[in-house]
Amino acid sequence: MTDSSTERPMRERVQVVPIVTLALVWVVLWGSYSLISLVGGLVLAVVLLLAFPLPPLHLGVRIRPWPLVVLVAWFAFDLVAASVRVAYESVAPWVHPHGHLVTIDLRTDDDLFAMITAEMTALVPGTVVVDLDPEHRAMILHIFNADRAQLPVIADRIRAQEGRVLRALARDADQILAARP
Predict the structure, then answer these.
(1) In the chain, which ranges are continuous DSSP H helix?
(2) Distance (Å) of CA 164 to CA 24, 49, 126, 133, 144
(3) Would you state the pLDDT for residue 5?
(4) Whole-model pTM over 0.85
(5) How far apart are CA 132 and CA 130, in angstroms?
C-alpha cells in the first residue's frame, strides 16, 4: 500500500499541455478530423497520463514577445547572409576556404539555453558546433573560411546571439547578463 502523502495530487498528474498534445497526435495519426476522434484522443490521453504520470517540468522559461521577435529576425538575417556567403565561397575558384576551431565562453550554465544557442548557431551555414559544455560554460565551434583576425568578431556574434536567446526566453535574463557581460 502506498502512502498517500508521497503521491502527487491529481492536478499535478494530469497536465493540460501533455493532454492536448497527445490528443492532437491521436487525431493526426487517425487522420480523422472529427469531434469523436478528438474526444477519444482526450480520453485516451487522460487515461495514459493517469497510468503513466509524467514528472512536472519546470523550465524556468519566460517568453517575452518583443525580444522573441528580435531573436527570430536576427536569426533569419544571419541565416540568409551566411547562406549567401557560404554558397559564394564554396563555388568561387579563387577562394581557398580554411576553417578554424574557436571556443566561445557562454554566460549561462543552463542546459536549455545553452542548447538553444548551440542549435541556432549550428543551423547557420558556416558554423558547426563541435562540443557544448554548459557545466563549464563553453561551446567549441568549427568556423568555415575564417581568418584568425575574424575569430573574436565571430565569438562576439555568438555571444550576442546567446544574449538574444536569454532576453527572449530566460526568466532571470537581466541577472545572467549582468553577471557575465
Answers:
(1) 10-13, 16-30, 35-51, 65-91, 111-123, 151-169, 173-179
(2) 32, 35, 20, 19, 23
(3) 42
(4) no
(5) 7
